[in-house]
Amino acid sequence: MNKPRTLNSISVVGFTIMEIMVTLIIVAIVTAIAMPLYNKTVDEMHKKEAKTALGTIRSAEQMYKIDNNNYTSATFGSDNNGNTARSTLNVDIYNNADWEYAVTGVSGTGLAARATATAARLRGKHKKGGTDPGVISINITDGETIADYSW
Predict the structure, then answer these.
(1) DSSP states of 14-83
(2) How many distinct structural domains can be found in the chain?
């Protein structure tokens, strides 16, 4: 900051335009460095949310098989309507803005559970030239779990 100047007997104190520009440039550089790291952290948190939900589905399906001698094909709605997972598997997992959950390929010996990223979740995160829908899945065969946490 500059020393006070006088302009027609009025004292003028303030920042020069150069000082303000340098400050704005520094803030822009710090923001450019921090935002990708923040976005990556948020993405990892959302993936962990899906992995945790799939782990819960896996455990619930295995307990269901112990009680009923087979797996079940549960559906996951956005609320209690259309959500058979809550009544069948006793889990509170719902489709949300980021993930849609599904249990498919149910047989007496196994099943596949998957979390598919919604269009809102992807927000242009496809690999260049790719069409990866953003799927995280687990497969259970005779109690053995094969996780495919690819993205």
Answers:
(1) ---HHHHHHHHHHHHHHHHHHHHHHHHHHHHHHHHHHHHHHHHHHHHHHHHHHHHSS-------SSSTT-
(2) 1
Residue 134 belongs to domain with CATH number: 3.30.700
Enter the pTM of the model.
Answer: 0.68
Element (H, E) at 121: helix 119-122
Rounded CA gap, 23 and 7, in Å?
A: 26
Contact 126, 139 (CB under 8 A): no
Instruction: Tell me the per-residue pLDDT of 90-102, one tens digit each, with 9 for 90 and over.
Output: 888 888 888 888 8
